[in-house]
Amino acid sequence: MQAVENKIYQDKIVIRLIQFSVIWAVIAISVGVYIAAELVWPTIDFGQFWLSYGRLRPVHTNGVIFGFGVSALMATGFYSVQRTSHVTLFAPRLAWFVCYAWQLIVLLGALSLLAGWNTTKEYAELEWPFDIAIAIVWICFGVVFFGTIAKRKIKPIYISNWFYGALIIVIAMLHVVNSLALPVSIDKSYSAYAGAQDAVVQWWYGHNAVGFLLTGGFLGMVYYFLPKIAGRAIWSYRLSVVAFWAFVYAYIWAGPHHLHYNAIPEWVQSLGVVMSVILLAPSWATLVNGVMTVSTAWEKLRTDPALKFIVLSLAFYGLATFEGPMMAIRSVNVVSHFTDWTIGHVHSGALGWNAMITYGTFYFLVPRLAGRELHSTRLANLHFWLAFAGTMLYIIAMWAAGVSQGLLWLSIDSIGELSFDFKDIMASMTPYYLLRLIAGLVFLLGTVLMAYNLFMTLKGQRAVKVTPPAVDPAYGVNA
Amino acid sequence: MSSNISSLTLFRSLYQPQQAFAELARAEPSSLRIFLSYSLWLLLLPPVFSLIGAANFGWRLGADQPLFMTTNTLLIISAGYFVALLFGLFSTAIISRWMAKTYGASVSLGRHMALITMVGQPLAIASAAHLFPDVLVNVLVLIPATIWGMYLLYSGIPVALETPPERGMLMASALMAWLLVAVVSLLGISMSLWVLGVGPLLGV
After folding, report:
1. Rounded CA gap, A365 and B8, in Å?
2. CA-based angle B129:B135:B141, to the nearest 5?
3. Mean of pLDDT over chain A
4. CA distance A445 to chain B (A)
5. Average pLDDT over residues A440-448
6. All structural domains of chain A
7. Which sequence ranges are marked TM in the entry (chain B) (predicted)?
8. What is the ipTM for the molecules in this complex?
9. Which among A335, A338, A385, A392 is the top mutation candidate for probing chain B, defined by the most B β-carbons within 10 Å of its own β-carbon?
10. B62 and A399: CB-CB below 8 Å?
11. pTM score of the predicted model
């Protein structure tokens, strides 16, 4: 019996991680909606520190990135690495440890942020005890993933695994280096780096967290699930390999574009700009590959709501990966930096790209894992339009707010004095923040519908038992 | 099959889109004729409205005082706006025709030119909001116009370009990606021009 169990793909863990991911999506987006409301009605923190914008904002970002995003990446990574290697997961107990330990870190981390523990490093706000725990769990994640690849029965390592692999290796490197600090108490540490160096290390981490987690990791998801959903092989495998290496090479240098006109060497800033612009090529190579793969699978749109999300996610991926390099150019950045345009840019990526591709993948995956049809295709189609409308409204509101802010902050009169008062400008932003709040609510509503739909699909079902198929000798490890 | 289609029919896409798309599907219009008799006039509306509005009321971006610029600066901005729209129309029509081969749609450039103009028509007309260049007023007017334009894009491609609705949806999404990039490019180019000294006076 044990021998048979060992030959069945470890999919229970995939289901559990998807459930956690969806729960975090609902919680973290709700927190986002609440802080969006605080920007319209600042008094709704009711004088409570833990309800203040400063404490809730990192709960929103950490919840979305590490709760929703990483849980989804672990789920899809574990699912796809087994299928592409034709073996079951290496060290399944360790995989379960990774699953639950990660959720505990996100939960306790969120509580610590509410309590005011904060390193003040963006996207790395959690204090040192959490940093150590993250490093340990992440390494275990790597052991499970690479262990599975090491015992694979297929000789080639499929392209999605290269992206998931890069995610694991690079995030480990970024996290360890950026989190080096001297602890002075359980809730306080001082960074190992000082001044401008700290800023450079922080944005080397910050931008590559966007690069290797929110872009690279999710590209792994695209390369496995897009061909699966479309029922076609990837349009150009060669292009995907070229795109991978170009992506990995170019991304790691782009961080300094977050520090334009700051106290870091100008050549470092310039290097950041050049590499950011070069990055457009590998990003769009994947875009072309995805669009061309899906272009021949149009019949699937009739029956599969998942494909719609994936098609639209590619459109927003195209936007975000073009907008980013453009905003890295100094003459654009000088106006756009510190404005709400940046928030709009981040959300065109987070909502339009990361969330859409994940939602599409979940709509594809959950019925297969549960062995029954999706509970409601109608609800999924409604979710699609809510997600689309919410994302568009969010972006438009933030573009308008951001461009107005950039222009007004820098406007000078004929004698060279600033024309407008900063606080007056910000006070006039309320209508845009209200539009953003509506956009967030619309997007959240869609996410809640998905949570209900997936819950009903999974209700009472056990994971379908699937065994690895026979390996074509031409692709076997000994071939 | 008639080779031409009247501007009035194209205009009707605003309120009777399906009939207008069906008529376009029966025509093989000349792209130059579509441009001169229909697109050009719509393209002129936003820059003209913007010029009149900015000269009379100034740009109202949320500060207590509107931002006034010299007539010369406003003329340059409006001319730039027109060139950008012109480039947007032609590039989108050409890209649309290029994509049509992948999605099994008609490759008649005239039809693409007409369809893209129909899609942009609600925005061109809603640009009357530029007559009072308050950003919020413009955002509130242009959002429903954008939604209508997107509806026209998604529903128009399968009918006017004769491709199955599912393939049309894919093509519309691919075009959407291009349009989003085009819009954000317009923002980026505008900012670069402001920093270079064309437009409002910035302390950079």
Report:
1. 49
2. 40
3. 95
4. 19
5. 98
6. 1-460 (1.20.210.10)
7. 35-59, 79-100, 112-129, 135-154, 175-196
8. 0.87
9. A335
10. no
11. 0.94
